[in-house]
Amino acid sequence: MTYKKQRSKRPALLSRTRPPTIRKNEAALSAKATRNLIRSHHTLLKQRAQASRAGDIGLVDKLDTQIQANGGLESYQLASRIGQSSERGGDSSKVLIDWISPGLAGLKTTSSKFRVFEVGALSTKNACSRNENLDVVRIDLNSQGPGILKQDFMERPLPLGDEDRFHLISLSLVLNYVPDPVGRGEMLKRCVAFLTESPLANSNTSMMPSLFLVLPAPCVINSRYLTEQRLEEIMSSIGFSLAKSKQTSKLIYQLWEYSGKPQPKEFKKEILNPGRSRNNFAIIVKRDVK
User: Fold this and answer.
1) Which of 2.60.200.30, 3.40.50.300, 3.30.70.890, 3.40.50.150 is the CATH number of 91-258?
2) Is the whole model's pTM more than 0.85, yes or no?
3) Would you kindly state where each structural domain of the chain is located, as residue ranges?
4) What are 167-204's pLDDT values in tens digits?
5) Nearest Cα to 262, choosing from 237, 287, 279?
6) Please, where are the H alpha helices in the chain?
C-alpha cells in the first residue's frame, strides 16, 4: 500500500509557519548580503516555529516584528531570486534539465509533454520554463507574479486522477524552508500523491516519476541529525531510489525516482554525526496510522 492511501490526518499547512510579509522595492544585493538575509530569515523562522509550538504568543509577536524589520518574506524571496539568477549561476533547474534532457529528446516528435510541478517557484523564466517539452505548473505561498499560483503545497487538493498528477516534482530549496522536522517528513511523503502512477514512455526511453530535491549542502553533510546515508534510508522507505546526484560547495542536487514500492518506517531525530560545529537540520518520518 502506498502513502497515497495511508493518510490518516490532515498535514500541517506550510502557511502556518510563514510570518506576515511587507513590500519593499527590489534593490541589488551583494552575495554576502544575500546569504546573510537568507540565513537570518531561516533562523528567525525556526525560532518562531518553536515559540508557536510552545504557545508563547508574546515571543511569536516579537519574532514577527523582527522578521518584518528584516524585510519579511518578500525580501527573503528577493534574496533567493538573486541567488538563483543567471548572473549568480544559481538556477538549479539547469542541473535538472541536463539530467532529464536525454529522456525528453523523443518527445519532439510526439504531442506528449513532461508534466512538472514546481513547488516554491520564484520565476517563470528559469531553465525548466524555457524548455518546450515541459508543461510546468508553479506554486508558491507568496506568488511573485503571473504564472505562479499562490498556494500552500500541504493544502493543495489531492489529485482526482492521473491526469492531475505529474511526471516530476521539484523541491528546490523548499524542504529546508519548512522549520519543523516532522513537517519535512510529511512534505516528502505527500509528494507521492502528486506523482503519476506510470512512467512516461517514448521512442527513446522510459522516464520514471521523479522528485528533484535541492538542499543547502550543510543540511546533509554538516548536520547532527542527517547524513547522506540517513537521507537515502528515508527516501527509500517512501519508495524512492537515487538516480542522480551532484554536490557543490553550497548545494546538493538529487534526482529521486519513484518505484511505487514504499517500505514504511519511522525515522526519529537522533544524533548521527556528533560535533559542536554541526547544525540541527533534521527530517522526522512518522508512520501513518491506518
Assistant:
1) 3.40.50.150
2) no
3) 14-86, 91-258
4) 999 999 999 989 899 999 999 999 999 999 877 766 45
5) 237
6) 31-53, 57-69, 72-83, 93-104, 181-191, 217-221, 228-238
Please enumerate, by residue number, every residue annotated as part of a binding site for S-adenosyl-L-methionine. 120, 140
For cell 506554486, name the residue: 139
Cite the DSSP H helix spans in 159-278.
Answer: 181-191, 217-221, 228-238
Q: Binding site, residues?
A: 120, 140
**Cβ(246)–Cβ(253) below 8 Å:** yes
Mean pLDDT of the chain: 79
pLDDT interval class at 40 (50, 70, 90):
low
Contacts of 76 (CB under 8 A, 6+ apart): 37, 38, 41
Pairing of strands 251-258, 210-216: antiparallel
pLDDT at 26: 42
